[in-house]
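Sample pair:
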Amino acid sequence: MGNSIFADNILEGKVAFVTGGGTGITGGVARAFAEHGAKLAITSRKVENLEPMKKTIEENGGECFAVSADVRDFSAVENAIAATVAQYGKIDIVVNGAAGNFLCAADQLSANGFGTVVDIDTKGTFNVCRAAFEELKKSKGQILNISATLHYLATPMQIHVSAAKAGVDAITRNLSVEWGRHGIRVNGIAPGPIEDTEGMKRLLPEALKEKITKKIPVGRFGRIKDIENAALFLTSDAANYINGVTLVVDGGQWLLGTSLG
């Protein structure tokens, strides 16, 4: 953690519940939260997918509780929230990072494929927010939703994810207004292309990478560390008057209308 730009104890005493916290972007966010003082609960459909991250966090002196739950199943989410409260006594931060994605042209996409991604991303985000509401009201906590920039213009082969993430952004805005009076802040992060993730390696042909890099104003792809830093800022006291914002972290890519298609 020696190269962090944030104070080591910026989240000290906080409890964070992170969906999709075993790998990828939200795995990085979970690890960063633990490194900066938070106690972690991470969740995924299969608990074995969480064990490596749990081990990493604990080996570095953090506390991590792994609990399985499918975010599409409200009862399972309720149980995971209850188990986290039983473990730590409270929840201060919820990060919605569980997501599904694959490349598919709209005229080849099945209704089931479309619905599955919307169920995981959009319905799953609502389920977790709703299940955590009473605990967040007690702690005057906050929600951080991981979105995307795909729907800002249009991204070929990604109609299902674009629709799902547009829904996530709507949830962020609406809950920020409805739940702000309870002391709950609700914000989001919209990452651009993040090169050190399995999803990007799978979704982006190597031949396109150089072409797209040239069209990113800052001249590089993002890294998980960039999202970690944004998440640490938004969940810290430094951002305690920021509510209802989805922070774009993409080096300015979407402003030029460049897509991964």
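The beta strands are 15-19, 39-44, 64-68, 93-96, 142-146, 185-191, 246-249.
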